[in-house]
Design goal:
Structural class: alpha/beta
Distance between the termini: 38 Å
Number of helices: 11
Order of helices and strands: HEEHEHHEHHEHEEEHHHEHEEEEEEEEE
Number of strands: 18
Strand order of the largest sheet: 7-6-5-4-3-2-10
Largest sheet: 7 strands, parallel
């Protein structure tokens, strides 16, 4: 979400921040399960969004290169949320672009080459090309003739235009559009279910909807999530499972959760669901600095963990990161945000991996932009057992992992990711460092051992 000051003020008027800190115990603790791989190991995903909104048709995905994935892995990241667009996949009803599918496959091949796990994200901004953006095809856009006024300097406010809101209602409620969306996902899943890079599918980016007369934004968001998004996700899940019974399904609430509003999303009837909210603050999205006294991170953490606790699903934050990360308090923001994300999530994808200014993680030379280097920490990519605790102390330069190794029939090897630099890895409690290489380390533990791994800078 690239939010607007106007929308932020609407939400802020509805909410009272709290200073209470949620005690979640991290992914796998306090009722939030960990994301797992095919071997049952607890996964941690750390990475970035990768996409090309500027090019479509024959030029689709042309700005992405192998370098994106090589550079991400070299800096210690193992995850990419790759943007794909329905308007490119299905330019006319029932005609799926084989060229676009091949382009996606090429991107996935690059990711696999560098051992980067991928979630394919069906991305939309302001619904799609009918409103000058990307996402849902123009042929699947119905507005009932309602007005639309572009806001080029404040694009997120276009979500509140009557035509855009009505288009979402038709997508959720019209049977032929429901079927078209489900078929689109079945095509994607059928093509990529066995690709070694693919971990899962993010079923729609930042879904919005239509506000009713007299309804405030928070109330509307909860209703849309409950009455429209929940059945939509269940429909798409059925379509995906017709061809793919293995990969994870990532489901998003509306972007309003970013301001600490608990979601109204209901149960998704599938055994491999990941809750995938976004983590944006309106003031910072408008270019402002982080305000530690406002309690935003604490309020967000407290609210966003309610759904995964209730429905026993893992959490992966699909987007986060401020626009102006060089503001005076941003160093503190990154440290506090990283600690918070580590308490309850199985990982995250920052916005975004590109080479330049604005939201880009790195500059044209590939060097981290100001404060973005704080996202590169040691972490356990895959733990062969049950995690007791996992935390990095950036001041001391020490990462500690404690876990109970799996039993005799379980997996044996735990994988660590190390950012650039010199790191010393030690293991205690019936475990040994099996191998260490640039940016990676592997630990072998005896069945049932209580293991402590320590990674120290220098």
């Amino acid at each position: 979400m690239r939010t607007t000051l106007a929308a932020t003020l609407v939400v802020a008027a509805l909410l009272a921040p709290t200073a209470a800190r949620a005690e979640t115990g991290g992914a796998g603790g306090d009722g939030i399960p960990a994301l797992t791989d095919d071997h049952g190991r607890a996964l941690t995903l750390r990475g970035w969004n990768v996409g090309d909104k500027a090019h479509s048709g024959d030029a689709a995905l042309s700005s992405l290169t192998e370098k994106h994935f090589r550079d991400m892995r070299a800096k210690g990241f193992n995850f990419a949320r790759v943007l794909v667009f329905w308007d490119d996949l299905e330019p006319s009803p029932g005609r799926y672009s084989q060229m676009y599918l091949r382009k996606i496959e090429r991107v996935l091949d690059w990711a696999a080459r560098y051992d980067v796990k991928v979630v394919l994200d069906a991305h939309q901004d302001v619904f799609g090309p009918a409103f000058g953006h990307r996402g849902v095809p123009a042929w699947a856009t119905r507005t009932d003739g309602l007005p639309f006024t572009p806001h080029p300097d404040d694009w997120f406010s276009e979500y509140f235009e009557p035509a855009v809101q009505r288009a979402f209602t038709h997508l959720y409620e019209d049977e032929d559009l429901r079927q078209a969306q489900a078929r689109m996902w079945r095509v994607l899943a059928d093509r990529f279910e066995d690709h070694p890079a693919v971990l899962g599918y993010d079923l729609i980016n930042e879904p919005m909807g239509e506000l009713r007369e007299g309804e405030d934004l928070a109330t509307a968001a909860r209703r849309i999530e409950r009455d429209q998004l929940t059945p939509m996700y269940n429909r798409i899940a059925d379509a995906v499972r017709a061809v793919d019974d293995d990969n994870w399904l990532f489901v998003e609430p509306t972007p309003i959760v970013g301001e600490g509003v608990p979601t109204g999303l209901g149960r998704i009837d599938d055994p491999k669901v990941v809750y995938a909210p976004h983590f944006y603050n309106g003031a910072m999205e408008a270019g402002g600095d982080y305000d530690p006294a406002a309690g935003w991170i604490e309020n967000y953490e407290q609210s966003v963990t309610l759904y995964p606790k209730e429905y026993k699903v893992p959490v992966v934050v699909g987007e986060w990161g401020p626009l102006n990360n060089a503001q005076p308090n941003m160093n503190r923001f990154y440290r506090e945000a990283m600690a918070s994300l580590g308490r309850y999530s199985s990982g995250w994808a920052g916005w975004e991996w590109c080479y330049g200014a604005g939201y880009c993680a790195v500059d044209g030379t590939g060097a981290f932009r100001t404060n973005k280097e704080l996202t590169a920490e040691p972490y356990a990519e895959a733990v062969a057992g049950t995690v007791r605790s996992s935390a990095f102390d950036p001041a001391a330069g020490v990462y500690r992992l404690s876990y109970d190794a799996a039993g005799r029939r379980g997996p044996r090897v735990t994988e660590l990711s190390l950012p650039p630099g010199a790191w010393r890895v030690t293991a205690r409690g019936g475990a040994v460092v099996l191998r260490k290489a640039t940016g990676r380390a592997w630990v072998l533990a005896a069945p049932g051992a209580h293991v402590t791994v320590t990674v120290t800078r220098g």
